[in-house]
Design goal:
By secondary structure, this protein is mostly beta strands. It has no helices and eleven strands. The chain has one domain: Rieske [2Fe-2S] iron-sulphur domain (Rieske Iron-sulfur Protein).
Length: 109
Amino acid sequence: MTENGFQRVGSLDELADDVPVAAQLQDGDEICLVKVQGKVYAFQNRCTHAEFPMSDGEMVDDFVIECGLHGAQFDVRTGKVLELPATEDLPCFEAKVDGQGGVWVKRRD
């Protein structure tokens, strides 16, 4: 189901604080969701360095996720690279939660 470019990818009760979770878009692309300080963030589920699943990584600081393969770090709010070996930012999605706790994402332009 899509609504104004947003598509539902899960529910808030499926997300524990600071625990990355994989979700799938309608086109088959996989994204990573993480809830930090009550807000949901969504980004590509492949590290830009070696394409390892970011959902297999871990949050190492507020808003910082680390790839479990080589330790590249990214800001979950912006996708910006914070630590090598990655040099390319993670593509991010706009995320929102509806009144029933559904998690919706939309590709950023």
